[in-house]
Amino acid sequence: MDMNRPIRVVVAKPGLDGHDRGAKVVARAYRDAGMEVVYTGLHRTPEEVSEAALQEDADVVALSILSGAHMTLVPRILDLLRANGLSDVVVLVGGIIPREDAEALKAMGVAECFGPGSDLDRIVAFTREHVLAARRRVEVR
To answer: Which position among 1, 39, 62, 107 has the lowest Cβ density within 10 Å, counted as fewest Cβ atoms?
Structure first.
């Protein structure tokens, strides 16, 4: 694996949530940091999100969910990513996620949950750190 290639991020809005300003702001921060970003648009199914990650050779799937359906959508997306051999993809969730749900999502495999007003520099740094760690794990295998 090329440790120096740009980080590829799929930013997705799964489910019925129609508010995408936060997803677009995060996508722009990733682009400004030199990452390659694919924004899937609104109302994506878990299958579409997983397929986009596969087709784009994503390092990261950044999900934005404000609808409250995170405990249904995220586990399905995680299962589909694993089924497609993408267990090393870093999964991040943004939105209004109650603390107990965030802990449950992390236990399922989500790397981090970011709420409204999260610092963009922190999101970018966290993403970069976790992708590079995932790449090192793959390289060691």
So the answer is: 107
In the chain, beta strands by DSSP E: 8-12, 36-39, 60-65, 90-95, 112-114
Taking the complete model, does pTM exceed 0.70, yes or no? yes
Q: Which residues have CB under 8 Å from 123's CB, separation 6+?
A: 26, 29, 92, 114
What six digits make up the tokens of 64? 């934005």
CATH number for position 24: 3.40.50.280
In three-state secondary structure terms, 5 is coil
What is the average pLDDT value for the chain, to the nearest integer?
Answer: 95
Cα 87 to Cα 81: distance, rounded to the nearest angstrom: 6
Q: Give the number of domains in the chain.
A: 1
